[in-house]
């Protein structure tokens, strides 16, 4: 099932919402890769998705962290901790194992993304928008 950036993910901060939408696009590319029956060796595409996800989230987290600092957001440090955990998780994937079992590797990545997008954006990032009001 594709990831849909619905209104219940919106924080009310335009640039954060736009960047979150981009994260959903990357997640959907990973999903499309999982369900593509015509590509038998998906390794290079999986690595590309992981690299884009890592690079884009670093870019996004930097923006989000600067914004939280600018509004003196009280839960900034717990956000920073979760951001670090997310990047560490992306960097911890064993590419050799993913190469051996590409579908399983993609499923693991997609499960991680689904949980992150759901819990972090709805559970933590929306509170930044509430604090900014």
Automatic annotation (TrEMBL):
Domain of life: Bacteria
Signal peptide, first to last residue: none
Pfam families: Hemerythrin (PF01814)
InterPro entries per record: Hemerythrin, Hemerythrin-like, Hemerythrin-like_sf, Hemerythrin_metal-bd
Keyword hit for Repeat: no
Keyword set includes Iron: yes
Keywords (A to Z) from UniProt: Iron, Metal-binding
Occurrences of domain Hemerythrin-like (ranges): 11-130
GO molecular function ontology, one term from the record: metal ion binding
Entry's family note: Belongs to the hemerythrin family.
PANTHER family with a match to the protein in the record: BACTERIOHEMERYTHRIN
Protein name: Bacteriohemerythrin
Native source species: Anaerovibrio slackiae
Record lineage: Bacteria, Bacillati, Bacillota, Negativicutes, Selenomonadales
């Amino acid at each position: 099932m594709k990831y849909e950036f619905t209104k219940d993910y919106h924080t009310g901060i335009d640039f954060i919402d736009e960047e979150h939408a981009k994260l959903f696009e990357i997640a959907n590319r990973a999903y499309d890769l999982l369900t593509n029956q015509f590509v038998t060796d998906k390794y290079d595409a999986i690595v590309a998705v992981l690299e884009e996800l890592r690079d884009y989230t670093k870019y996004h987290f930097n923006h989000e962290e600067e914004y939280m600092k600018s509004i003196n957001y009280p839960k900034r440090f717990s956000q920073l901790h979760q951001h670090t955990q997310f990047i560490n998780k992306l960097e911890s994937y064993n590419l050799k194992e993913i190469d051996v079992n590409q579908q399983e590797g993609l499923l693991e990545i997609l499960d991680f993304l689904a949980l992150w997008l759901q819990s972090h954006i709805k559970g933590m990032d929306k509170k930044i928008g509430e604090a900014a009001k």
